[in-house]
Design goal:
- By secondary structure, this protein is of the alpha+beta class.
- The chain contains three helices and three strands.
- The protein has a three-stranded antiparallel β-sheet with strand order 1-2-3, with helices on one face.
Length: 132
C-alpha cells in the first residue's frame, strides 16, 4: 500500500509569499520614518528640559539669600543666556536656541530651539532671572 505524500501545494506557497509581500509593503514605510519622529521627540524633550531648568533657576534666584547665593542662581535674561546658564555638559550638542533680546527680571520670553539637520523647530518659554 502506497502512503500519500503530505505537504503544501505550489499555489499555497505562492499565496503565502504574496500575502507576506503585501504586509511588508504596508509595514516598511511605517518604520522608515522613525528617524524624523525620534528627532521631533528629542527636540521637544530638550525644549521642555530648558523651560523647566529656566523655571527652577528663577525659583533659585527668588529664594536665594546673601549667605547662600553660591550655585543657586545664574543670570538668564535672554534666549542666548539659557545655553550658557546650562553649560557644563548639560546642553546637548547640535541644538541651537534663538529668540528676542534681553528681558527684565521676572518676565518671560519665547525662545526657538532647532536641531542641526532637522527642519522643523519648536518653541519654549524662559523666565528671566538674576541681575544682568
Amino acid at each position: 500500500m502506497k502512503q500519500a505524500q503530505r505537504g503544501f501545494t505550489l499555489i499555497e506557497l505562492v499565496m503565502v509569499i504574496v500575502i507576506l509581500g503585501v504586509l511588508a509593503a504596508v509595514a516598511i514605510p511605517k518604520f522608515v520614518d522613525l528617524k524624523s519622529d525620534a528627532q521631533a521627540a528629542s527636540l521637544k524633550g530638550v525644549a521642555g528640559a530648558a523651560a523647566s531648568a529656566s523655571a527652577i533657576n528663577y525659583g533659585g534666584c527668588a529664594i536665594s539669600t546673601a549667605a547662600s547665593d553660591a550655585n543657586k542662581c545664574k543670570v538668564v535674561n535672554s534666549c542666548d543666556s539659557i545655553k550658557q546658564a546650562l553649560s557644563g555638559g548639560v546642553w546637548p550638542t547640535g541644538y541651537s536656541v534663538t529668540g528676542a533680546g534681553s528681558v527684565t527680571n521676572g518676565t518671560s520670553s519665547t525662545c526657538t530651539l532647532s536641531l542641526s539637520g532637522y527642519t522643523p523647530t519648536t518653541t519654549f518659554e524662559i523666565i528671566s532671572a538674576g541681575n544682568p
